[in-house]
User: Which sequence fits this backbone?
């Protein structure tokens, strides 16, 4: 009996001991598996981080460095089209164009397979184009700041600009003047040895190189006579020379409006004053009345002209013509006073003789002055 109890105890103890000895082996396998999984995850994470860092570095390099900069300047093709010119402000020395531009360059680092990619402009290298003569921050962009990238790495950027551009105008020949207007595009931070702009043909007409302008413009009193688009460095001061290109056009003012609305009425006012020469000097009141009313009419007319003529520190052709007309009308008033005084002193014959001479002297003087101020 005792033998059986001992045998049962040994068997139970042996089973428990076997179980206890078997349990430590299970955690060792799980730990090894967990460590292997952690190591694999760490390697995947490290590779992902390395790839992300590498891609970030490549993107930074693509964004910071010019394409094939070791070969020389990066060639950027440009085409500019002036859709419209809203106005030309003589007084503000500015004009407001509506411009469309297209830039293209090749960056082999962006070559890919498949369809055309559209990405933000700021994600790749670009010439950082600005308009040098824009009026402050009033120039607006209408199109999204994106580029199209073709399979071979050709990058195309399109944009539309609208806003006032400054333009110094020499108005000494106003209103028979014409001016050269410039739209100066320039790169921010790149010299001519780094970026070179090349005029490219239009998509619709390959014979048009570099740029064009619309045939119908919102300028009722100006006519565009010629234009040109070309590569031109921006050199505002001696030590600054930035790569850029320009679109220039010459516009001539329509003088017909000023001829019929300003000059012809002014001629009639001056001729009205000459009517005093055909009134007998004994009727001094009528003579002085005509001369005085002509002078007052001319003064009022000059106030109206002040809204048409720009305020300038120098004289224009129209200013000279208006000033000469005013002087002649004033001299007419002086002549009337003199002849009236002679008639009152019983020197009517001399007064009539002076009037007869003035009938020829004043018109001839006025014609010569008009030719000198408006034509020559």
Assistant:
């Amino acid at each position: 009996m005792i033998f059986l109890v001992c045998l049962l105890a040994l068997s139970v103890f042996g089973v428990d001991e076997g179980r206890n000895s078997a349990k430590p082996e299970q955690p060792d396998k799980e730990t090894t598996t967990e460590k292997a999984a952690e190591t694999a995850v760490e390697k995947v994470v490290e590779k992902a981080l390395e790839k992300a860092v590498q891609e970030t570095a490549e993107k930074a390099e693509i964004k910071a460095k010019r394409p094939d900069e070791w070969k020389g300047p990066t060639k950027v093709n440009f085409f500019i089209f002036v859709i419209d010119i809203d106005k030309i402000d003589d007084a503000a020395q500015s004009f407001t164009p509506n411009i469309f531009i297209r830039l293209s360059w090749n960056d082999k680092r962006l070559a890919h397979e498949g369809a055309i990619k559209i990405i933000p402009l700021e994600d790749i290298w670009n010439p950082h184009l600005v308009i040098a003569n824009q009026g402050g921050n009033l120039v607006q962009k209408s199109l999204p700041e994106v580029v199209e990238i073709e399979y071979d790495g050709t990058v195309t950027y399109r944009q539309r600009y609208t806003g006032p551009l400054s333009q110094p105008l020499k108005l000494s020949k106003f209103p028979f003047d014409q001016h050269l207007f410039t739209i100066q595009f320039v790169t921010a931070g790149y010299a001519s040895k780094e970026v070179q702009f090349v005029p490219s043909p239009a998509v619709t007409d390959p014979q048009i190189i570099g740029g064009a302008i619309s045939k119908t413009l919102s300028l009722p009193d100006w006519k565009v006579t010629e234009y040109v688009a070309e590569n031109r460095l921006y050199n505002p001061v001696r030590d600054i020379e930035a790569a850029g290109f320009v679109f220039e056009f010459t516009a001539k003012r329509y003088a017909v409006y000023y001829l019929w609305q300003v000059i012809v009425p002014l001629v009639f006012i001056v001729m009205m004053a000459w009517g005093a020469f055909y009134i007998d000097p004994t009727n001094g009141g009528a003579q002085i009345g005509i001369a005085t009313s002509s002078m007052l009419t001319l003064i009022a007319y000059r106030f109206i002209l002040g809204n048409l003529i720009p305020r300038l520190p120098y004289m224009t052709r129209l200013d000279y013509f208006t000033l000469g007309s005013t002087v002649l009308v004033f001299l007419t008033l002086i002549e009337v006073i003199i002849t009236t005084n002679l008639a009152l002193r019983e020197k009517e014959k001399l007064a009539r003789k002076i009037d007869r001479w003035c009938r020829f002297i004043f018109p001839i003087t006025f014609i010569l002055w008009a030719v000198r101020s408006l034509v020559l």
